[in-house]
Amino acid sequence: MGTKRLLLINGPNLNRLGKREPDTYGKQTLEDVIRLVKDTAWEYGYEVEEFQSNHEGDLVDQIQVAEEKAAGVILNPAAYTHTSVALRDAISSISIPVVEIHISNVHNRESFRHTSMTAPVCAGQVVGFGVDGYRLATLGVINKIESGGRKES
Ligand code: CA2
Q1: Is the pTM of this model over 0.90?
Q2: In CATH, 5-146 is 3.20.20.80
Q3: Is the CB of 79 inside a 6 Å radius of any atom of ligand 1?
Q4: How buried is 112 (Cβ within 10 angstroms: 0-12 exposed, 13-18 middle, 19+ buried)?
Q5: Which residues form the catalytic set?
Q6: pLDDT tens string 129-139
């Protein structure tokens, strides 16, 4: 079981962080994000397993097995946020808390980014704080776990 372990899942194109579009997503790389989440989790005695994929089905697979190995999930579904019923259904199917995080403020960008398919089935959402949002999401998911471990907010 996944007591004291978090799963960090990043969706499509986030492997490009720090290499393109610094005005929107900053200069920090995915490796920096992973280090930030690991360091934050470690302060509270949690280990972190991380996964990034550009493929929707692979993200679904990881969410499906998340509760076998972790107590909570930090998820940036990236572009699939706005389109994926499959990711939403996978999140609905697990009982551990999932916190959605977006680096940019999706609400002051194009209108197609204003809707999240996934946020309604997540325990919470962090938006618009840059890469620092991953620290907030980590604190948020730990708070959810330690206040009962259920996904509902
Ligand atoms: O702000 C976020 O974290 C997003 O999830 C990022 C997604 C975007 O589709 C969402 O609307 C908001 C895009 C991730 C692409 O990341 C890149 C990073 C560097 C260079 C190019 C893309």
Answers
A1: yes
A2: no
A3: yes
A4: exposed
A5: 25, 102
A6: 999 999 999 99
